[in-house]
Design goal:
Shape: elongated
Structural class: alpha/beta
Mean pLDDT: 88
Distance between the termini: 87 Å
Helix content: 10-25%
Number of strands: 26
Low-confidence stretches: 1-32
Largest sheet: 14 strands, mixed
Strand order of the largest sheet: 1-2-3-5-7-9-11-13-15-17-18-20-22-24
Strand content: 15-25%
Radius of gyration: 30 Å
Amino acid sequence: MLWQTFYSLLLLSLLFRCTGDESLPEVTDYEEAPMDKREREALYSAIQGFVGDSWNGSDLYPDPCGWTPIQGVSCDIYNDLWYVTDLSLGLVHENSLACSSSLEIRPQLFELKHLRSLSFFNCFISPIVIEKEEWVNFASKLESLEFRSNPGLIGKLPETIGNLTKLKSLVVLENGFNGELPTSICNVKSLKRMVLAGNLFTGMIPNCFKGLKKLLILDLSWNSLSGTLPSSVGDLVSLLKLDLSNNLVEGNLPQELGSLKNLTLLDLRNNRLSGGLSNNIEKIQSLTELVLSGNPISEDIMGIKWEKMGNLVILDLSSMGLRGEIPIGLTKLKRLRFLGLNNNKLTGLVPSEQLEALPCLGSLYINGNNLTGELGFSRKFYEKIGRRFKASKNPNLCQPFEMVMSESHKHLLPLGVKPCT
């Protein structure tokens, strides 16, 4: 136990003093923690700025890196001394440090020279603008920077974040940041994840992604970004996830999208994209999720060779003003689980038997079109899919009369589809 170790060391110290043997090393007092003094003072001052001066670390023995660490502070040893490597503020865990309503970012924070990860969760409630100058002090070490759910963080994202050349993960999620995105973020060539979603960013998406060859995730969703989708997006050769949903992006889909051979998710829903679907979409054969709903694409979708996209699991093309018939190529997508074609201008017959033959299909929405003819789905299909099938608001679409009249089938049939006469 700790007190036994301390007691043994104390006895040894007294023994050496009594014998006068000064050749042996002096025993270190356990009250002096093996942590760099300036590091500890900088950490405590920085934490006090966030949680209030009433916190003084007195309950941490022998230091925040020792036997009683605080949740959210991690350390590592450099030259036989403890230094802080990870600092997480906010009530992420039960014993995490809760931020004060009147917090401040003290300059001592930027004296933690070995810091690799820094995150703030629900800390900044009152309006505060982050100064840009000190961030360059983290340039040589910081690998992860996160601001999550901080509505008080306003103003522009500091352009000096572009100096953090070791940064691998930048997460700025659901804050109050506004203004244009700084082009300096494209200087961080080591980035693997860039999430700037749920803020108030405006202006155009910077056309500067050419050097981000390691980027795996780019999420700019839920902002007010406008202009066209930049062609340099096609240079993100390692990209797995691209989410630009719920913005004001307009214009055509760039041909360069077809270069993203590793992309598994493309979510562009609820923008102002137009000009039709690019045939280069079918070149992204790695896609498992393609969501383009809520864009005025207004095109006949028969021109896309959907059968080439055999990995698709989710395909949402709803509310796009699409014309023409339901492409037979869609019925070749054996892994498809969700198909949304609702609220378009589709015409022609529903390929019921082919759609029913899709082994994984669990959600099918074709409501709000101009489809015609008779639905040919079986009772087994309706039992499997339930209310995840909608076909209403197709004035010329009907259900077989014998299905409607059957008491055993009636409760399974989709609502809003008239019986055939």
